[in-house]
Specification:
With 421 residues, the chain is an alpha/beta fold. It is 39% helix and 13% strand. The strands form 4 sheets. The protein has a 7-stranded mixed β-sheet, with helices on both faces. Helix 1 (10-24) crosses helix 9 (262-274), helix 10 (276-304) runs parallel beside helix 12 (382-407) and helix 11 packs across helix 12 (382-407). The termini are far apart. The structure holds pyridoxal-5'-phosphate (PLP). Pyridoxal-5'-phosphate binds at residues 40-42, 68, 137, 142, 170, 172, 224, 226, 231, 236. Residues 2-389 form the Aminotransferase class I/classII large domain. This is Pyridoxal phosphate-dependent transferase. InterPro entries: Aminotransferase_I/II_large, PyrdxlP-dep_Trfase, PyrdxlP-dep_Trfase_major, PyrdxlP-dep_Trfase_small.
Length: 421
């Protein structure tokens, strides 16, 4: 019950390091010096911004969109309200060419404004100030449900190195994975499907300690016990280069108060040491969420796909997370479907628009999309949820058909319909 060490409970750091080594299988084991215990992914995003950014010198925060909307306020708190920029995704995840083009423009602007050094953050030996921040949820994203391909991960790390960017990823759903096939009975997978961005930064082209690099690296991974144990624990971990992991442990509030979540960190160390948590993930969570996923996708295939609803990345071998992203048939709007679903069917879904980056939806707007969650409801409720959603969509489509029938101009002989539509 004393103040904890700045980087967190040693026993938990050690167990997290070996657990991650077993799961992600990097070529070299993950050392505990790469791990800092946090108060969860949200709290640590704030800490990373406090230590590694300057609201003026750091040119932009690039956010893969659609994005986890509760992160926006965290960027706002650190002074980035007018500097948030959306980066669209395609089938493989983040659009690297778009990001490169826009970062170059941002750099040109900084040069013309002589924005050459941090304005508010002095020299601090444990920290550095990055010129850019890139925020992503690369695996089983909330909300897009997509997984970024390995090629994109590597391209992103190279781009981050070229432009002095820190890629902050919330890797909070990685453990919640299962085979995509709806016939599979075995729904447990004990190895990650892809390296995280932070793993890529460690091995790619000489890694974080390559010649000429400052050793901080260009990636920070926010892990969390929220999705695999319980969000009320308020405990997570941050992985990065040893310099970065130490740097974030030196956030002012941690230096004063000691590691966040010190008490619950000791409980979690115990569950990892005994193997109870690993067992819970593998034998309870993955099968339970995998079953729910199978039920909801069967219902989506039966009820929604015939209505013209689209689902991303249907060619994957492994899926996971909590959410599925649905693209509605045009011209249906997510906000209208959401409202009708609540009013007529007592069904809660999230409209795509709330995941747009504030102030920048020009290249990434989601007014025709929805996010649904399959993790919360019991398995036997999910098909009915989708049937209710299908009723709402069918109802709106019928209304549209009737409305356009009423306004359809009469086509005279010799004229074709396309002259009018
Ligand atoms: C992408 C993402 N990041 C962060 C969080 C919050 O994580 P934590 O409870 O560890 O702060 C969530 C929870 O919904 C999330 O989906």
């Amino acid at each position: 019950m004393l103040y904890g060490p700045d980087p967190g409970d040693d026993r938990l750091r050690k167990h997290v390091a070996s657990w991650l080594t077993g799961f992600y299988q990097p070529s070299d084991p993950i050392k505990e010096a790469r791990i800092t215990i946090t108060g969860g992914a949200s709290q640590n995003l704030a800490c990373l911004l406090q230590v590694f950014t300057d609201p003026v010198y750091t040119r932009n925060v690039w956010i893969v969109a659609p994005a986890y909307m509760l992160a926006f306020r965290i960027f706002d708190d650190s002074g980035f309200q007018t500097k948030l920029r959306a980066v669209p995704e395609d089938h493989g995840g983040i659009d690297i060419d778009f990001l490169k083009r826009e970062i170059r423009k941002s750099e040109d602007k900084a040069i013309s404004e002589e924005n050459n050094e941090p304005k508010f953050k002095g020299t601090r030996p444990w920290a550095k100030v990055y010129r850019h921040v890139i925020y992503a949820v690369p695996t089983f994203s909330n909300p897009s449900f997509k997984t970024m391909t390995l090629n994109r991960r590597e391209a992103l790390v190279r781009l981050a190195r070229d432009y002095d960017a820190l890629v902050i990823t919330d890797d909070v759903y990685d453990f919640l994975q299962w085979p995509a096939s709806l016939e599979t009975k075995t729904l447990s997978l004990d190895k990650a499907i892809l390296p995280r961005i932070v793993d890529v930064d460690r091995y790619l082209d000489g890694g974080t300690d390559r010649q000429g690099a400052d050793g901080f690296g260009n990636a920070a991974s926010n892990g969390s016990f929220s999705k695999i144990c319980g969000p009320g624990l308020r405990t997570g971990w941050c992985e990065g280069s040893e310099k970065l992991a130490f740097g974030v442990s030196q956030t002012g509030s941690t230096r004063s108060g000691g590691a966040p979540s010190q008490l619950t960190a000791t409980f979690l160390a115990e569950t990892l040491e005994s193997g109870e948590l690993q067992n819970h993930v593998l034998n309870t969570l993955q099968p339970a969420f995998g079953k729910r996923y199978q039920k909801i996708v069967q219902a989506i295939n039966k009820e929604l796909i015939p209505l013209g609803v689209g689902v991303p990345q249907t060619d994957r071998d492994v899926v996971g997370g909590y959410f599925i992203w649905l693209t509605l048939p045009r011209p249906l709007k997510g906000a209208v479907v959401t409202q009708r679903a609540k009013e007529d069917e007592n069904l809660v879904v999230a409209p795509g628009e709330i995941f747009e980056v504030p102030g920048d939806n020009e290249h990434a707007s989601f007014s025709h999309d929805l996010r649904i969650c399959f993790a919360w409801e019991e398995e036997d409720m999910l098909a009915e949820g989708i049937e209710r959603l299908a009723r709402v969509i069918r109802g709106l489509q019928n209304e549209q058909d009737k409305a356009s029938e009423a306004t359809r101009p009469q086509v005279a002989e010799g004229e074709s319909v396309k002259d009018f539509w």
